[in-house]
Amino acid sequence: MTAPPHGARTPGAPEELPNTQQGMRRRNLSRVLRTVATDGPLSRASVASRIGLTRAAVSTLVDELIRSGLLEELGPERPGRVGRPCSALAVSSRGPAGIGAEVGVDHLAVCAMDLRGEVRARVRRQAANRGRPPEAVLKELASLVRQVGRDAERDGLRPAGLSVAVPGLVARGTHTVVSAPNLDWHGVDVDAHLPTGLSLTVDNEANFGALAELWLGDVPEDFLHVSAEIGIGAAVVVDGRLLHGSRGFAGELGHVPVHPEGPACACGGRGCLEQYAGEEAVLRKAGLAAGPRRVALLAERAAEGDEAVRRALYGAGAALGIALTGAVNLLDPQAVVLGGALSRLAPWLLPSLARELGDRTTGPGCDVTVSTVGSDGPLLGAAQSVVRAVLDDPAGVTGPDRGGLAALDR
Amino acid sequence: MTAPPHGARTPGAPEELPNTQQGMRRRNLSRVLRTVATDGPLSRASVASRIGLTRAAVSTLVDELIRSGLLEELGPERPGRVGRPCSALAVSSRGPAGIGAEVGVDHLAVCAMDLRGEVRARVRRQAANRGRPPEAVLKELASLVRQVGRDAERDGLRPAGLSVAVPGLVARGTHTVVSAPNLDWHGVDVDAHLPTGLSLTVDNEANFGALAELWLGDVPEDFLHVSAEIGIGAAVVVDGRLLHGSRGFAGELGHVPVHPEGPACACGGRGCLEQYAGEEAVLRKAGLAAGPRRVALLAERAAEGDEAVRRALYGAGAALGIALTGAVNLLDPQAVVLGGALSRLAPWLLPSLARELGDRTTGPGCDVTVSTVGSDGPLLGAAQSVVRAVLDDPAGVTGPDRGGLAALDR
User: Fold this and answer.
1) A18 touching B (Cβ < 8 Å)
2) Tens-digit pLDDT profile for residues B357-402
3) Closest to A260 (Cβ–Cβ): which among B19, B258, B334?
4) Where is A331: in which H helix or E strand?
5) Is the pLDDT of residue B346 over 90?
6) Among the partner residues A239, A257, A359, nearest to B326 by beta-carbon distance
7) What digits encode the pLDDT tens for the residues B77-93?
8) Quick check: B51 and B31 in contact, CB under 8 A?
9) Do domains A97-210+377-409 and A218-370 have the same CATH topology?
10) pLDDT at res. A78
11) Nearest CA to CA, how far is B358 from chain A (Å)?
């Protein structure tokens, strides 16, 4: 694997720290911080017993995390048994914040999330981005990032990095959108047009959506996340880690051949899943014109009992089931999670989808569930990926060049 | 992910060592040993500069590895420049050995591999294993394991573990073959019938075959390994690690739907890849009866220009291309590697396979190459997986309970 260029991070993949005393200290700082983030508030003694280090070693690490503003003490309390009073530790509500941003076909959104996972500032603006020059889109996004960053700082937070979700393919370990057909972007370097001064990560919206399911939703460690807006996107999570693929293009479920002799697809193939379950195909089969609020319209009509719409969704579900059979056979995930527009349409997609998958796979098969995170997944996953990077290497944010007001005002 | 039960290891996945001084020492022992194994012979100073530790720290680690019989000194030599004479280090030819074993439909094989990756003892025996009681098959295998173990010990080696490749699905982290249809095995606990006293790992032959490609062949870190004997097997390697799937069943390419309305398959699906590219299907289309040396026969006839055989292989290649399009779209590997019987038939499969894959995938696509390891892949991969486990945690083999003569003679 080629190493990513300096400054480009792969979301969901903790950096490997060197195997030295210094590296061990950094790893142990992370273990303490993650333990408190996951299970806190906790006493020093509880942290020590959970991670198998001595109480003295944990106290030294905790003191460093408090000095860096990543942990805070909730004040002394006397437990219901004998012994010294102890102070419970919690992750700071005034420490570093992750800034997440989303470029949609018809909107822009930015939020700031604290180390506890709470969204502390957010903004969303309608914008007709399809065909608009990328420079203009990203200039507007940069101003929203600055606005949210200032709101977060007024609230005592310190922006620690920016992750941007885009509806397209991003070359692994770069800031370059190779192709985002629904925006008409090709080879757009996001870094060049988004000068916020924050450490930047760019990735596909389906990937950030899957990370949001993993971190904020109710999913197992191995799952396939399938979502749809205009195209069909998917992301593969294995052992709690996102699978990016060698070029960063993994998860292209929309162009899996479903009926190999089927209609030609813009990708060059024939009978791809998008020809049966993509938004345009479903609208056409349902006898509806393309237009705004398309998914809402499909859901309303299906709920009202419109037979043509129900038939179109039934066919889309069957095509999804065939494509997912191949994916489940190859990857053996614990679950398939339907997100994005698919979660709204799930009642009418699921019967045929589950039937195909059940008939075509052996053994106990694979659960099919509907996202609990909702349509904010990509935005929240982007912000959370910055938070995770801090939790994975807290020493990395305490250096001189890591975000903060000065960076934002550059 | 559920932790594997005690004693069952997942091949190709280094165990995570605890993050303590002791864990750091063990990791650094491994780094020294792996550096010499990969790049040796090397001086202590060269090892130190490669792994970024001080020369003094490396010397302490090297001394421990020499005492444990894992490294050896090749004797003093004076380099062509000023300075003290130094002694080059090499991985020991008399240290621990990995024992690999393979249960085939018509053969059994066992080999012993030293830490340098050299096969030092091996045995192969024809055996009609299809339908034979698993106890009898494994009893015969155990006697071959003891024979190879004794040969290795006479040669100064110390068996450090046993890995067994089987043509079936193995439940992740267990020794249980859930299903091996071509052996007629269902729910066979290999451990219960293979009492060699050695630490045991059991996995699918395609998985060990893929590890052999990774470790001994000429493949990138991200690839899809496709092989065939009677069924079609595949294995997915991502960032140099085998993807097992949640239950251990990943890589079931043979049951990816190629023509969803096609012929019924024993798996319960319709139009699976095996219905077009499995051995039986190809023989039937070629007008040949099933029987021994079937693949050799196909290759001979195709080479002689037999039109029916060539047409059958062309069709099989096209079906492989359609199934691989879905796999490449989902996983974005750097390469697809054809192994097992497919490597012998590659000249007649590749044209249609590459055409389908090329027409149906966008961008630079994905290289399709033929295995350089050959049909011994699963056996060599099994033995090498034990060797890798020693290289990944050399401290683990120096304890009292780790293999050796006493274990073999139990």
Assistant:
1) yes
2) 999 887 667 899 999 998 899 999 999 999 999 999 998 775 444 4
3) B258
4) helix A307-331
5) yes
6) A257
7) 655 555 555 679 999 98
8) yes
9) yes
10) 53
11) 9
Q: Which residues of B touch A1 (CB under 8 A)?
A: 221-222, 239-240
pLDDT at residue A233, as a whole number? 87
Q: What is the pLDDT of residues A328-384, one digit of tens each?
A: 999 999 999 999 888 899 999 999 999 999 998 876 678 999 999 988 999 999 999
Token output for A386: 């910055």
User: What totals of helices (H) and strands (E) does chain B contain, helices first?
Assistant: 13, 15
Compare all CA atoms of chain B with the CA of A237 and give the residue at the minimum distance: B245
A259 vs B contacts (CB less than 8 Å)? 259-260
CATH number of the structural domain B96-210+377-409: 3.30.420.40
- Tell me the fold of B218-370: Nucleotidyltransferase; domain 5 (3.30.420)
ipTM of the complex in this document:
0.85
A259 at interface of B, judged by CB pairs closer than 8 A: yes
Q: Which of A101, A210, A233 is nearest to A164 (CA)?
A: A101
Show residues of chain A in contact with B323, CB under 8 Å: 326
Q: DSSP string of A364-384?
A: T--EEEE-SS-TTHHHHHHHH
Nearest Cα of chain A lies from the Cα of B65 at a distance, in angstroms, of 18
Indicate the domain borders of chain B: 21-91, 96-210+377-409, 218-370
* Angstrom distance (rounded) from CA B364 to CA B335: 11
C-alpha distance from B106 to closest chain A C-alpha (Å): 26
Q: How many angstroms away from the CA of A398 is the closest CA of chain B? A: 22
Mean pLDDT of B255-280: 92
Q: Which CATH number fits domain A97-210+377-409: 3.30.420.40, 1.10.1740.10, 3.40.30.10, 2.60.40.10?
A: 3.30.420.40
Give B335 to chain A, closest Cα distance, Å.
9
- Give me B284's structure tokens: 């039937």
The pair of structure tokens assigned to B328 is 């490449």
The mean pLDDT of A278-297, rounded to a whole number, is 87
Confidence (pTM): 0.86
Q: Give the one of B31, B52, B256 whose C-beta lies nearest to A329's C-beta.
A: B256
Cβ–Cβ gap B260/A258 under 8 Å? yes
Could you confirm whether domain B21-91 is CATH 1.10.10.10?
A: yes
pLDDT of the residue at B31: 93
Give the integer Cα–Cα distance in Å for B339 and B371. 5
Q: Name the residue in chain A with its Cα closest to that of B235.
A: A330
Q: Round to whole Å and give the CA distance between B288 and B309.
A: 9
Q: Give the containing element (helix H, strand E) for B188.
A: strand B185-189
By the CB < 8 Å criterion, does B336 face chain A?
no
